[in-house]
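S1.2 Input.
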Amino acid sequence: MHTRTTLAAVLILGTLLTTASTVHAEGASLAALVKAPPHPPTLISKGDGFELWLEAGTVQGDRIETVIRAGYTLSRKSTKEDGRTIHFSTGLIRTGHRRPTYFDGRIVGIAQDKERLYVVLYQQQFHGARPVGNEDPRLMSTGKQYRLYVYGHADGKLWAMHSFSNAPRIPPRVLGEVTTPGVIKNPPSKGVVIAFGQKLTFEGKKLAKVEPESPGVDPKVYAAKAENAKWQWEDAKSSTEQSAKRYKGDYKVTAERESVDAPPWAELTVRVKKGDDLRFEQKAHHQTPFHIVGDVLYYVDYHLHANGTRFVAYDLKQKRRIYHVMLKGVGSVPHFRYNNRVTFDTDGKVAVIYGRESVGRYVEFVDLKTGATVGHKRFNDK
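S1.3 Output.
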């Protein structure tokens, strides 16, 4: 007999799992186990009378549900009887005809330790017309849609759940589904998980403690620096090419255009290598400043003609994003024919970002460890 639990609106039964692969390990990422869909089902955990499986691209619809984008399914299969429990399925699903309702679910972080499997899910529900790609504003997260689901390796069942009400707004295009730790910052160990600025401690099947992630710097110091800051601007600190030339370290960093004849405003490709190993590659516009501190790449992500700026940390060793946060900047504003520029510098502990948008200027200090704003000031533009 099949049972549906969790994420009720988007839980759609997939095909029966048949193939085994590998089993959980301490601090393991599933990236090496689970390939991009479609792929064979992957055995995550195995115990007395059960198996925990993850599969992709197999979710099916029915007469009242239409699958627009199939995602992943996590299920618990009984080895003693014919049946399984669907823990959750992700994807974009439509229900109803006269007034369609859409359910969007995505894995944005998944990792495990010896006792537990940790899955961070993004979940959204909205009505109306079918969303247009990943840029539809209705897919924009508000923070309340992120939940951590914790499954036990001992019995393959859901042990605990936690909602991240403090999670930042993240553009939908960034929320591609992953089988990497994603928003889970630390390799889980001894029941401790860090995500969205919170440190969660689990004991047995229960969430024992929720506390803020310890900051890397004293926020009071940088709040005072922001308050006393004077406006300044250096073009070199807003340049993608200058960021690559400025770096002196163990990595080989390049920022190149497709052609030597390309104009100075043409798109570049930023690459970071360690020997022959490509650690990072991404296209960027010509005013995307970045820095590498140790083994972490930090960069700003923004549109030259749109409001708002995001700050990103990327682990060059593990090849994964650590965090992706919205800056306070000048706030969210309606605009037309807009201009946006930023400079980025760092003292090794804090990012110092000066922003110049059509509606105003600001300075912002960001803790490199946590991604939290520790100082911010908007300049008086009269």
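S1.4 Remarks. The chain has two helices and 23 strands.
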